Each structure stands twice: as structure tokens, then as C-alpha cells.
């Protein structure tokens, strides 16, 4: 009898293992079959790495691009991907993002590699992709808790700022372009971008909100910025924040703006805010404090 029970439990374990396989639809609209929980993963996008870290999956990462801060085997540039190097790491899964990296998917699949495209562009996409990865890695409960936390951050801030009249909200300009009077265009985020959502939900008015581009990003000229003369300027810096701030103060064009004169220019970590992930929602509080006081 005891032996029969043991055999029955063993069969259940085997069936459970064999039946793990899930089929998902990734952010490129592709149907992807995941036959078993991936043990080794190559993250070909820094933002994907941030998702994996948020879910406690760092021990599964065996390779990242040269643009990634995570300490793992480097696979080279974002584009073109070094297919041979990735293949040599024998990953169970490669995670890429969309946009200009999308053509790399076919090359990876031709090499016999399993690929999932993770390309969140909105705050709701963060919640969706957390859930997606939870299903892929068999940690749905953990992913659900993280997704709930992210969703609550968004909802709670939205409730907090919903009663602020439009006329009392500060106008805001966000840019990832280093302040330099010789630069003719400033890259910013408009409609359809998560940056626009962060500004809006945190209680600001994005001066570029009526405009859009690829994933919501677009260039504007100096004349536009001077004409709009925003109350607040947020700059994503990829270098020394203090140096960036000094450059702004010494800029003839930036220096003429209301936000600069009133000390309403704020520097944020470019690497962090430009890589959408579960951590991105913490900028709701940061932006709110920029707009209405606080640290």
C-alpha cells in the first residue's frame, strides 16, 4: 500500500513537471510556447533585467548587454546582437525589447533560441509584463503581489491628485537631452509615453502632451520650449547631476526660462528612468514632490 502511494505521488510529480508548459502572447503579439521553467536567461535589454531583478530572478541571468549595469557575462551591443555569443551561453530563454531590436528576434529563433519580447510603453504595461513573467517562471503568486503593489502606487497617486484643478497644476518639460546651447533639438516624451503618464498622474501638465512620436518620444526645438516657458523642468542625466545643473544655469537659452530662474529644475537618474520597469512607479512620488514640495 505504501509503495502504491509513493508511486502515485511520483506520477503526480512527473505529470506536474510535464504539464508546466505555458503559451503566452508577448509584447510583439507573438505566440510563444514555454515548455518548462527557464533556468538560464539572457537579458538583451536593460529594462528586462530590471523586471527580472524585481521578481528575484537574478540567479537565472547568464548574460546581459554591454549597456546593462547588472554584473553578468556581457553579450555585446543591443544591435546587432551577437547571436553566437548568446548561443554559447546555452540559455533557455532570451528576452529582448521591441522597436529597433525587433528584427533580431528572427535571427535568434533561426539559431534555435526561445525568445520573448518585453516592450512595455505605459504604466499599465508594467503590471501586465510582471504578470507575464510570473507565468513564464512559475512564480505567479509572487508576481501577482508585485503587480498589485505597482497598481496601487498608480491608483493611490491618481486619487491624491485627481482633485487638483488644471489651473493650479504646474506646467512641466522633461528631456533626456544634455543642456547645450549648440543642440538644435531636445528629446522629450509626449502622448503615449510612460513619462507623460508619470507627469500627469503626479499632478503636472506636460507641455508636450498633445504631441507624440515613436513610443511617445519626439524632438522639439528651443523655440517651442521658450514659447511654452514651463514652471518646472526635469532632466534625465547620464553623468554628474551637479555638472548638468551647472550647465543649465550657464546656458543662455535655459537660463532665460522661468523654471531656471526660480530654481525649479530637477535632475533624475537617466539610466534608471529611461528603462521602464516596476521601479518606475517610484517616480510618481518624486514628481509629486517636485511639483508640490517635499523631498
UniProtKB/TrEMBL annotation:
Entries under Gene3D superfamilies matching the protein: Nitrogenase molybdenum iron protein domain (3.40.50.1980)
InterPro entries: ABC_Transporter_SBP, ABC_transptr_periplasmic_BD
Domain Fe/B12 periplasmic-binding: from-to ranges: 40-295
Matching PROSITE patterns: FE_B12_PBP
One protein family per Pfam: Peripla_BP_2
UniProt name for this protein: ABC transporter substrate-binding protein
Naturally occurring in which organism (per UniProt): Thermosipho ferrireducens
Organismal lineage: Bacteria, Thermotogati, Thermotogota, Thermotogae, Thermotogales
Amino acid at each position: 500500500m505504501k509503495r502504491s502511494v509513493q508511486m502515485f505521488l511520483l506520477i503526480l510529480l512527473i505529470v506536474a513537471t510535464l504539464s508546466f508548459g505555458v503559451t503566452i502572447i508577448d509584447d510583439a503579439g507573438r505566440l510563444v510556447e514555454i515548455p518548462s521553467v527557464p533556468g538560464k536567461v539572457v537579458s538583451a535589454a536593460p529594462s528586462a533585467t530590471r523586471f527580472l531583478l524585481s521578481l528575484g530572478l537574478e540567479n537565472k541571468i547568464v548574460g546581459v548587454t554591454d549597456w546593462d549595469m547588472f554584473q553578468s557575462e556581457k553579450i555585446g551591443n543591443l544591435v546587432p546582437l551577437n547571436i553566437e555569443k548568446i548561443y554559447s551561453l546555452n540559455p533557455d530563454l532570451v528576452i529582448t525589447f521591441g522597436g529597433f531590436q525587433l528584427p533580431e528576434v528572427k535571427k535568434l529563433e533561426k539559431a534555435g533560441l526561445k525568445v520573448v519580447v518585453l516592450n512595455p510603453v505605459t504604466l499599465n504595461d508594467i503590471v501586465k509584463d510582471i504578470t507575464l513573467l510570473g507565468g513564464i517562471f512559475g512564480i505567479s503568486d509572487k508576481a501577482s503581489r508585485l503587480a498589485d503593489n505597482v497598481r496601487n502606487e498608480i491608483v493611490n497617486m491618481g486619487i491624491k491628485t485627481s482633485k487638483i484643478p488644471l489651473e493650479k497644476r504646474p506646467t512641466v518639460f522633461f528631456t533626456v537631452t544634455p543642456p547645450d546651447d549648440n543642440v538644435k533639438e531636445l528629446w522629450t516624451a509626449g502622448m503615449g509615453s510612460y513619462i507623460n503618464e508619470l507627469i500627469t498622474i503626479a499632478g503636472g501638465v506636460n507641455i508636450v502632451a498633445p504631441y507624440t512620436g515613436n513610443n511617445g518620444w519626439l524632438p522639439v526645438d528651443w523655440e517651442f520650449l521658450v514659447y511654452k516657458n514651463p514652471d518646472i523642468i526635469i532632466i534625465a542625466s547620464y553623468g554628474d547631476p551637479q555638472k548638468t545643473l551647472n550647465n543649465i544655469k550657464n546656458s543662455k537659452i535655459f537660463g532665460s526660462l522661468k523654471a531656471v530662474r526660480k530654481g525649479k529644475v530637477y535632475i533624475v537618474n537617466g539610466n534608471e528612468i529611461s528603462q521602464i520597469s516596476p521601479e518606475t512607479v517610484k517616480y510618481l512620488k518624486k514628481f509629486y514632490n517636485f511639483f508640490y514640495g517635499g523631498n
